[in-house]
Amino acid sequence: MSTHRVWKRLLGVEHTVIEAVDLEGEEGVETVVVRVRPTRSRQGRCSRCGRKAAGYDAGGGRRRWRGLDLGSTMVELEAAAPRVRCRAHGVVVAAVPWARPGSRFTRRFEDQVAWLAAHCSGSAVAELMRVAWRSVTAIVERVVADALGSRDLLEGVTRVGIDELAYRKGQRYLLAVTDHDTGRLIWAAKGRDQATVEAFFDALGPERAAAITHVSADGAEWIHAAVRARAPQAVICLDAFHVVGWATKALDEVRRRQVAELRAAGAVDTAAGLKGTRWALLKNPGDLTMLQRTSLAGIAQLNGPLYRAYLLKEQLRAVFAVKGEHGRRLLAGWLAWAKRSRLPAFVKLAATIERYKPLILNTLDHRLSNARSEATNVHLRTLTRRAYGFHSPEALIAMAMLTRGGCCPPLPGRAA
After folding, report:
1. Contact 119, 106 (CB under 8 A)
2. pTM of the full predicted structure?
3. Are 107 and 98 in contact (CB under 8 A)?
4. CA 124, 126, 130 angle in degrees (round to 5)?
5. CA distances, 392 to each of 185, 250, 364 (Å)
6. Nearest CA to 81 among 61, 98, 66?
7. How far is 377 from 232, CA to CA, in rounded Å?
8. Rounded to the nearest 5°, which phi and psi values hold at 389?
9. CA 395, 396, 402, 406 torsion-angle sign
10. Alpha-carbon distance 161 to 149, whole Å?
11. Residue 188: alpha-carbon gap to chain centroid
């Protein structure tokens, strides 16, 4: 095998001619500099569209691109960077086969940084790859943009989940759309209003919007209004998790009211004991500890209103567990029970559920929940905690698409 082919294999480049290899720098901080040029068929192409273009000038002279290290020694590729005049994009720097447009790193380097960013913290990636954390963020955005340029995540979508996520303090939200069939994040944007949902349908287009059959969401009217306006044929399913969450809040409201009434009556010790039963009431029965089971048994004997509220919460959870026609009958019974429960929080909740009843029945009939969207939200919150926050919504969206949108490249030299 020739030395030329060996260096091409080591650098992971194609359509490239190796002109020379030098070692620069002082001992301990040396850099392997590989002087290269594109093959004749790859010269004089627009870096935006890849089409042949007329030469314009020599640009800013020779440039260098950081490549993957050889052992512990840094590698840089050096080549001329002329400019061309593209009919569609005007004067741009000519494309090079070893790097993405606008990047000072090779494709292999960026692919490895992106893969590492999807699996560990940005500071660890920056330390390992010897780049700034801002460079890691920029690389992720370029890799994701490159991946999305060659695939259409919205193609063939029929069932979606729509949910919002707070990405920073101060009521700053992202809207995330998940494909129920693949579990992938297919679209995300900054915002939390009807216009943001309509922007998703704009990206989808009228023909593909007409193919949407089911949409799962929480109780946000602005989501429902946008879906009805842009995809009127779609069945809207109210997320069971949020409905049970309403019951959980109502239960906690009853508990707090009972504590306040006991304190007002002078039963301070009983009120203190009841205050510590919050998790025994809110947790699922199968997850209770022995102590929490004992606390719940005590409530059943000593506090009828609170135990009735607990049973109402569990009965509503059972509605979504069984689904179908059985779930419909359970829901009708639950509504009748809640309305006559003499618990203001649950009487109010019954009115709310009555208002959303058609959407809840859709959930029971079509057995669709927003679980995939909630899983995506949990993942994005984990990413945010791991990164100690993101400086912009675009950075978080790029990371979300990398990890949940199927845009993460394989490690260089590994099969996809």
Report:
1. no
2. 0.84
3. yes
4. 125
5. 19, 36, 38
6. 61
7. 26
8. 95, 160
9. negative
10. 23
11. 8
The alpha carbon torsion through 302, 349, 340, 293 (nearest 10 deg) reads: -20
Tokens of 353: 């559920």
- DSSP code of residue 42: G
User: 232-265 pLDDT, tens per residue?
Assistant: 999 999 999 899 999 999 999 999 998 888 888 8
- Specify the residue for token string 């048994």: 297
**How far apart are the C-alpha atoms of 258 and 250, rounded to whole Å?**
12
Give the side-chain half-sphere CA count within 13 A for 107.
16
Q: Which two tokens stand for residue 210?
A: 């007409």
Q: At a CB cut-off of 8 Å and minimum separation 6, what does 365 contact?
A: 323, 324, 328
Per-residue pLDDT tens over the stretch 183-228: 999 999 999 999 999 999 999 999 999 999 999 998 899 999 999 9
Residue 74, both tokens: 């840094």
What per-residue string of b and e applies to 10-44 under the rule 16 or more CB within 10 Å gives b?
Answer: ebbbeebebeeeeeeeeeeeeebbbbbebeeebbb
Structure tokens belonging to residue 312: 């109402």
DSSP string, 72-110: TEEEEEEEE--EEEETTTEEEEBP-TTS-TT-SB-HHHH
How far is CA 208 from each of CA 152, 194, 231, 369, 414, rounded to the nearest angstrom?
A: 12, 19, 9, 22, 35
Q: Which pair of tokens denotes residue 87?
A: 């009919």
